[in-house]
Amino acid sequence: MSFKLVAMRIEIWADVVCAWAYIGKRRVERALADRRGEPVEVVWRPYRIDPTAPATAVPLAEALRDPLADEVLRACAPGLTAAENRMRVSRVAAAEGLGPPWGAAWRTSSHDAHRLIALAHEHGGTGLQDRVVEGVLHAHFVDALDIRDRSVLAGVAARAGFAAGAELLAGDAGDALVRDLLLEGRARGIRTSPTLVVGDRALAGAQPAEVVGEFLDAAVPGRSLPGEVERLRWAESLLGQGDRSGPSRCCARCSPSTAATARSPRSRPAPTSRRRSWSGRDGPWSRW
Fold first, then answer.
1. Closest CA to 20 of 211, 215, 206, 275
2. Fewest Cβ atoms closer than 10 Å to its Cβ: which of 206, 243, 259, 271?
3. Is residue 1 part of a domain?
4. End-to-end CA distance of the chain
5. What is the CATH number of the domain that holds 134?
6. How many CA atoms lie within 13 A of 204 on its CB side?
7. This prediction's pTM
8. 195-227, pLDDT tens digit by residue?
9. Which of 82, 81, 100, 80 is closest to 90 using CA atoms?
10. Which domain holds residue 274?
């Protein structure tokens, strides 16, 4: 039996209804294509930018007519209307080879999509998970489909080669796993979609490929701790934060520079850890 040596694991904490997650995926792929040397493993982790999204999808155009939504979007992109910001994001996406067409059509819960992504990793590793993530993002942003619809997710799973995906989604498989990972992300101070984590360092936002490359060059793979130790560490962190759960600070329409200046992770780390932050050329990354 042969084993593949993985010297570095990149965790991407992101929400699949976040346009910058798809843009960030392309930028990470480009950064990795330019790298030589040690093998790299990419694992996707769940994050929710819109935890109050309804179980039944609502047309995005209707959701954006809510004055509160307009206020939030203006905070994410000062000086731009929601429509102007969507145009800006579509131009950035096009520069990364995404679309046309481009643009989500639904405000919808991403919970089941995160379940499918987590289950794909559990059943088929990073290769299968990457294909599922790509399929979900394409369905939401290019095909403008409702990714809360089980039939849409079943189609994504089938095209990715995840034959058991639809049957697993029909039950509650992956539900506890996703909820546990969301709590872990909160404990680790993830506040931006996407956030890249390598070892004890994090890079917030869909940064340019060159910045991702700088981050990876500076990152050192973290040591693996026993599961019980990790759980205790994250529990202590949540207690230290007072478990301040709620909507994310940055959303699908935030710019990467806005996300970067959030200096993720912002929350108080576990008492046993220390965190330092410094800046790369276009944005800061942090160290626990």
1. 206
2. 271
3. no
4. 36
5. 3.40.30.10
6. 30
7. 0.79
8. 999 988 999 999 999 999 999 988 866 555 555
9. 100
10. 8-287
